[in-house]
Amino acid sequence: MKFMKLGTRPDTFYTEEATRTVMSDVPSDLTIKINNVTYLLHKYPLLPKCGLLQRLYSDSDDPIELHDIPGGEEAFELCAKFCYGITINLSARNFVSAFCAAKFLRMTEAVEPGNFVMKLESFFSSCILQGWKDSIVTLQDTGRVYEWSENLGIVRRCIESIVDKILTPTTKVSWSYTYTRPGYEKKQQKSVPKDWWTEDVSFLDIDMFRCIVSAVKSTNMVVPQLVGEALHVYTSRWLMNVTGHEGGSTSLSQEEDSLERKRRILETIVGLIPADKGSVSIRFLLRLLRLASVVAASPVIKSQLLRLSGLQLEEATVNDLLLLVQSPDDQTCSDVDLVKNVVENFLRQWKRRAPVDERESVRSVRKIGKLIDSYLKAVVKEANISVQKVLSLAETLPGFARVDHDDLYTAINTYLKEHPDLSKTDRKQLCRVLDCQKLSPQVRAHAVKNERLPLRTVVQVLYFEQEKSNLQTSPEKHESKQHLIDEQSHKTRGNRTLAPSTSRVHDKSDYNQQLRSEPSFKEREITESETDKGREIRDDGASRSQLNSREKVLIRRISQRTDS
Questions:
Q1: Quick one: average pLDDT of 129-153?
Q2: CB atoms within 10 A of CB 319
Q3: How many CB atoms neighbour CB 474 within 10 A?
Q4: Burial, 36: exposed, middle or buried (Cβ in 10 Å; 0-12, 13-18, 19+)?
Q5: Structure confidence by residue, pLDDT tens digits, 55-66
């Protein structure tokens, strides 16, 4: 950081009660009041350099009141010390207040050559604006006297300097910057990272940050991903621990002011997101969407975030979706409702799009189906997630979104295992989303033995297993029948001495015998679990009355095999 030293005399200002004065053999003859501080000074060093004091001074003993001086008493004291020739050190940290106060006091060249304003202007142009961090600190300091800084052009010139440096090719970046990314060691890096500027600008007020990012975007010289990275860094700094209530000893008004400030930051960040798809990550969009609910952002902002999240949902991973939210009983759980809303928005946009390639369009929905089933497998382990939330998210997807239901079965089985006290009604309700026809043989084998599943679901699995078994044995029956017909024809042509009627009777008898030997139910060992289930089915008249005719036939067969 650059410094400018003015004056050579030692500092002789001192405080006595609420009065500031300077040690001198000459009695004070100029009284100035600023807020609650009174200054006892001298006319001979101040009046020649301050045009305002020349106009306000009179021969009366009435003090001159300067309550509205920008920067307050600290800024005035810098100007007074300059007039006395006392040593002062100027930098980006006190330049703004000193410059505004000097302008207020009219310490210009018209009043006296080589005055304070001219020296400050020279320092601003040749030192502050040439440095990166000096420009950032100066712009940050304008917040205390923003109107004066804006009218004097300090804000505009600082922003222009910062934007020019951001647009500088990384090979020409020679100034110091802040870069503290995890795993990054500046000494070991020979090249400057493309996002070198994002961390320093994140220290600025949201209005200053918005001006810089908007100016950078308007040049079209920075890729959208870099703008997105700057938004991500700023959000991480200012909205990292937003919970909706500050807690502690903060008053209600302070809490409301804090929430309003965070809401304004969030809505500004959303407005700065580039229109280019992929400029920010889906994880960042989902995080903003969750924050929008916490800070009570406007419906327009929430709708915009939902749309952007739906557009990029295919890029998401399970970890991206695992966002925690505070439940009404002060426990944390995964925000399943947020994920459901994003999936619904994705499907709405998918329906509106005209598919260029039908197969690719279906593949994108199935990718989301795989993602959501994997997400369900992760969140069902949580103790306070309800059946309704799991079922609602699972049913959001259309039927063709799942090629198979193996992952969905795993999620449901895990939920039943982690929630052993679940009622019979809830278990039935949860399992209704399963399509037993889409279960793999391995999963069906597991489901048949699964004591956690409702009885009706097990019966459905057995029924579809039987149906599949029948489909597999039908070709074998047809082949056997065709073989017998061919054999009969061959015997008829080769041995005409045999009585035709006898031959036909014999062949037909063999064929009927083979048909009787074909099993009508897939031959497999009945497990002890299935035996118990068969008895349970027979004993449970109420459950049985709810089954359809095909399931009743299947239960009857299981019961007969159990009794035998």
A1: 96
A2: 10
A3: 11
A4: exposed
A5: 998 766 679 999
